[in-house]
Amino acid sequence: MRTFTFPLAIAIVATLAGCAREPGPPLISVPDSAKLTWQEVPGTQGAVTYANVEGDIFGRGDYLAYVRFRKGTDNGLHLHSQTLPTVVLSGTFYAVIDGKRIEYPAGAFYRLPARLVHESGCTAAADCLLFQYQSDAFDLIGAKP
């Protein structure tokens, strides 16, 4: 019995060692986004606010952030210098691209390609809550029709 127990113990230890969690990024958990630190986006008179989850939306490097738009807020014609993935968490957000309006209700995802000229905003029905992430600072560059 002793000769069987030792190889079995070695096999168990090897299996457990193989199951160990690889070191990586820390867990990020936001059970209630309302408890985050919300800040006004400059120049919006409070119509657009954001809360960083990781990094800084207006800093350098990767960021994850919630962005809240007051209902009826329109960003006008603009573009972003890099791709902008967005998840709509509440409200209905919209984008107007090449004259075509697309509405994104809660649960929708969209990814705007870098330098795509568009108009966007939150419909008048309810405030919008978005989740956005990028690998560098957010920007909004005004565009002409």
From TrEMBL:
PROSITE patterns: PROKAR_LIPOPROTEIN (PS51257). Pfam families: Cupin_2. Residues 66-127 form the Cupin type-2 domain. It comes from the Bacteria. This is Cupin domain-containing protein.
